[in-house]
Specification:
Length: 321
């Protein structure tokens, strides 16, 4: 089995800002696994919040042995971006060898389109209102917040898109006091989910706190090992393949989280259609889907995912799986 890894850059359609900073391009790693003339591909987005860099993740990938299977990979690499790209490339390779789709190999039903959120990055209230109005035709908007003065931004987005469903992502940017103050207003403005309001290391404050709007764990959940630490704090888990370390663990986390009564959100880093393709399988039937990465790009892979009024569609075999 031959493994190669390359660095790819995709320009964003506009600057994307969250509480941690801004970016104008998506930098990703692409893994290709070939065996017997058949090639499988996977993509990951190294994320500094989790101690990852392009260099460290590439080194993890290049350090793998010459031959391994998906089961062995789970022990060879920890959850994270490196394992994600390789795991998804293995799934793609297996499907192409077998002449079947990944969803069949995984024992899943035939996937269909799922409505996805469209993310509005952090900006001034007026600019966020304008962006909300421009995208008011979308059924679900996700607002990036995470500052002490977010109330004006939230009001502005609701004014710009009065009929859209809204979810909010604070990216660990609030304190317990700020969240408690905002929570009634989130409910009043029709927000149906709030992601990671408090820093992952300080979310004990959520225990016993009134949660009028469901609270979703993002930075606080990576894989199944995270679940015990979420009890009493969160109502929903955000499954991202770059956190779980691939499709294999993402599907297992979804089953385990549902068994424990958590709602499911399926999210993404800012990457190309190749990164979103495996996640569309996890997204089937999820309460909230946020796989809008390709919609934020000015350029994408060949045979990109299709987005329309029904949502994001599963990938064509030319792209993945």
């Amino acid at each position: 089995m031959q493994l190669s890894v390359t660095r790819d850059v995709f320009r964003l359609a506009q600057v994307f800002t969250i509480s941690r900073g801004s970016r104008s391009e998506a930098r990703v790693l692409t893994v290709r696994l070939s065996d017997g003339g058949v090639e499988g591909r996977g993509e990951c987005v190294p994320y500094g919040r989790y101690g990852e860099s392009m260099e460290s993740v590439e080194a993890q990938i290049r350090g793998l042995p010459a031959r391994f299977d998906r089961a062995e990979l789970q022990a060879l690499l920890p959850p994270g971006a490196a394992r994600n790209a390789v795991d998804c490339a293995l799934w793609d390779l297996e499907a192409r060898r077998a002449g079947r789709r990944v969803w069949e190999l995984a024992g899943l039903g035939r996937p269909g389109p799922e409505v996805t959120a469209y993310t509005l990055s952090l900006d001034s209230p007026e600019r966020m209102r304008m962006e909300a109005a421009k995208n008011a035709f979308r059924p679900l908007l996700k607002i990036k917040l995470g500052t002490p003065d977010d109330m004006a931004r939230l009001e502005a987005v609701r004014a710009g898109a009065p009929k859209s469903r809204i979810i909010v992502d604070a990216n660990e940017g609030w304190s317990a006091e700020i969240y408690a103050d905002l929570a009634p207003h989130l409910l009043r403005l029709g927000v149906e989910l709030v992601e990671q309001p408090l820093p992952a290391g300080e979310d004990e404050a959520l225990i016993g706190m009134e949660r009028p709007v469901p609270v979703c764990a993002d930075e606080s959940v990576h894989d199944r090992a995270s679940l015990p630490g979420l009890r009493g704090k969160y109502d929903v888990v955000n499954i991202k393949l770059d956190k779980t370390g691939g499709l294999t663990e993402a599907l297992a986390l979804k089953r385990a989280a549902e068994a424990e009564g958590y709602g499911i959100m399926v999210g993404c880093m800012v990457g190309s259609s190749l990164a979103m393709a495996p996640a569309t399988l996890v997204a089937q039937g999820a309460g909230w889907v946020d796989l809008d990465g390709p919609l934020l790009l000015a350029e994408d892979r060949a045979h990109p995912l299709q987005f329309d009024a029904e949502g994001v569609h599963p990938p064509a075999p030319e792209l993945w799986g």
